[in-house]
């Protein structure tokens, strides 16, 4: 099942992708699930599946504006230096524990929306990533139970302002600029991806492949990330964990290569889909 949040004439909604359209869920839920995050918190995905199975789409995909699948998550937690080849290209030592930093919701746009290169930097880099969306919250989740807490998976373009990232040893300043990243196009539920390590990620800029790696190359895999993060603080339904980027980013090349206005960035993870966005200047 593919779940989306979207904007259409009359406001925002969320629903299930079906036959090239979307079965909207806000009205069908009689207010019980005003958002996808609320449906996750209610543990209602099977009810959502049954409701969509007997319904025709309310709107075509081309008629709506996609938002990040969970537009206002409680937490967006990102992992740095989580592919060995990427660690090597940065020149940093391999981490002993997952390096964590945060993004805020205003830093992400949906599929098809514009990525914004800010006025104060020209060092705008791409990072394609697999993102995990939590379905069942919890604290101190054991690795063996971790995948049972996952609602599904999506693509994330973790846009980075390399100069601001270098201002200190903490990554967040370069990682959460307004509308600098993207998430989507939708959330694919975990029943369709029993093993995230079997996925392959590819990032393209203007059609040119810049990153290509199996998710099995993660240093800290999805269960270990969930266990580690939930030992620090409780995870909540709708929380997003972005698992890290493989090698092939632009900022560590000689000379560096950065995104320019008009560039198109695609992050593809089959069978989830393709997240596609164009870059504009602020």
Would you give an account of this structure?
The protein has 282 residues and is α+β, with helices and mostly antiparallel strands. The chain folds into 2 domains: 2-67, no CATH class; 76-281, Fumarylacetoacetate hydrolase, domain 2 (Alpha-Beta Complex). 15% of the residues lie in helices and 34% in strands. The protein is built from 6 helices and 19 strands. It has helices at residues 36-41, 45-53, 84-90, 162-165, 172-175, 222-232, and strands spanning 2-8, 11-18, 21-24, 59-60, 65-67, 76-79, 100-103, 108-109, 115-117, 124-125, 128-134, 150-157, 160-161, 181-189, 200-205, 208-214, 240-242, 264-270, 273-281. Strands 1, 2, 3, 4, 5, 6, 7, 8, 11, 12, 14 and 17 form a 12-stranded mixed beta sheet that branches. A hairpin with a 2-residue loop joins strand 18 (264-270) and strand 19 (273-281). The protein is globular, with a radius of gyration of 18 Å.
Count of separate DSSP helical elements: 6
Instruction: Report the principal-axis shape.
Output: globular
CATH class value of the largest domain = Alpha Beta
Percent of residues in β-strands: 25-35%
Which stretches are poorly predicted, pLDDT < 50 over at least 5 residues? Answer: none
Q: Give the strand tally.
A: 19
Oligomer: single chain
Query: Which fold does the CATH topology of the largest domain refer to?
Result: Fumarylacetoacetate hydrolase, domain 2
Could you tell me the mean pLDDT? Answer: 97
- Determine the fraction of residues in helical runs and give it as a percent range: 10-25%
Could you give the distance between the termini?
A: 35 Å
């Amino acid at each position: 099942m593919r779940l989306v949040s979207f904007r259409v004439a009359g406001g925002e909604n969320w629903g299930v992708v079906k036959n090239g359209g979307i079965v909207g869920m806000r009205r069908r839920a009689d207010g019980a699930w005003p958002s996808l995050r609320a449906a996750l918190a209610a543990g209602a995905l099977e009810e959502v599946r049954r409701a969509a199975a007997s319904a025709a789409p309310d709107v075509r995909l081309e008629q709506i504006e996609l938002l990040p699948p969970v537009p206002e998550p409680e937490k967006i937690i990102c992992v740095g230096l989580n592919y060995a080849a990427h660690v090597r290209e940065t020149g940093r030592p391999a981490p002993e524990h997952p390096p964590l930093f945060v993004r805020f919701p205003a830093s992400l746009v949906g599929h098809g929306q514009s990525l914004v290169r800010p006025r104060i930097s020209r060092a705008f880099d791409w990072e394609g990533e697999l993102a995990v969306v939590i379905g069942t919250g919890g604290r101190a989740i054991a690795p063996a139970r971790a995948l049972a807490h996952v609602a599904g998976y999506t693509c994330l373009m973790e846009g980075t302002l390399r100069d601001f990232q270098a201002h200190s040893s903490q990554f967040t300043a370069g990682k959460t600029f307004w509308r600098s990243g993207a998430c989507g196009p939708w959330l694919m539920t975990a029943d369709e991806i029993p093993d995230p390590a079997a996925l392959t990620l590819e990032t393209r800029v203007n059609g040119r492949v810049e990153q290509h790696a199996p998710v099995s190359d993660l240093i800290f895999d999805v269960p270990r990330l969930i266990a580690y993060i939930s030992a620090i603080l409780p995870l909540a339904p709708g929380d997003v964990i972005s698992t890290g980027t493989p090698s092939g980013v632009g900022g560590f090349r000689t000379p560096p290569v950065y995104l320019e206005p008009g560039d198109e960035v695609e992050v593809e993870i089959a069978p989830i889909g393709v997240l596609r966005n164009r870059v504009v200047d602020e």
